[in-house]
Amino acid sequence: MSGREDPNAAPQAASELQETNTMLPDITTGSETELMKELDREYRDRSGLTERRHYSIFYSRIPPSPLMILGINPGGNPATWTMPAGADEFCSAWQHDYVDERYPIQAVMQPLLRKVLGIDDASLRRIPKTNMVFRRSQGVSKFQEQQSGMTMDTALKEAAPTLEKIVRRVSPKAIIFEGLDALAMFNRTFGTGALGSSLVEPVTTPNGRHRALIYSVHELRTSILPDPIVACALAHPSKYARRAEFQTAETDMIDRLASVGAILRAMGPSAGAT
Description:
- This protein has helices spanning 9-21, 29-47, 97-100, 104-117, 121-124, 143-146, 152-170, 180-190, 237-240, 246-256, 258-267; strands at residues 67-71, 129-131, 174-178, 203-207, 210-220, 229-234.
- The chain is of the alpha/beta class.
- Strands 2-1-3-6-5-4 form a six-stranded mixed sheet, sandwiched between helices.
- Strand 4 (203-207) and strand 5 form a beta hairpin.
């Protein structure tokens, strides 16, 4: 992998995406939701958690898709968080947090994905969303306190077997990481080598005495997928989306992920969506 920007990288990736994913089969409602329930049971057994206030895995269905989104961990105070009454935990009607819920990251990611990919909400529902860690906290700094002393790294190892099954099923050619730490966590867990230089000039923004990184792109090789993936890493969207530099990231993703959007538009909404 070259550490320099390669002007041919995006077109080559586009070709591979188009060839691999255009004919992805649809997934029946029953088989996929049963798989999601089984993954949830496996995680409960491994973690010892029995209450949803402590963890969350699914924010969408998990069909094969050319793109998925990975954050760091679920928000919320596990001491007080409650599952809404009658919630469909396994998205049987193709519910998606970025379409059906309202919270700060959603308010950024829904319009961003629509614009970058040129899709509507029906196609957005096909983009799987989950996190690197499944245990809740009100921010990374409070994780250990709110999860009874468990470190984030321990929770990452705990979630990894479930996350691996999800990523293998989705088999993405590109991943958008919400939070730069999410990319680092993914590469530590599944990567086959050190993370190389960004394929684009890293986008930064003023942040006190230093500049904060807003956006970078990497070619990432993993132990769980046969081909390299395009990894687009965004600084935490709810914090930096209003910065002018965020528009530079958006512009790059429009070009870089053009074939992903084309595939999603061609696939259309799932037959099981309501």
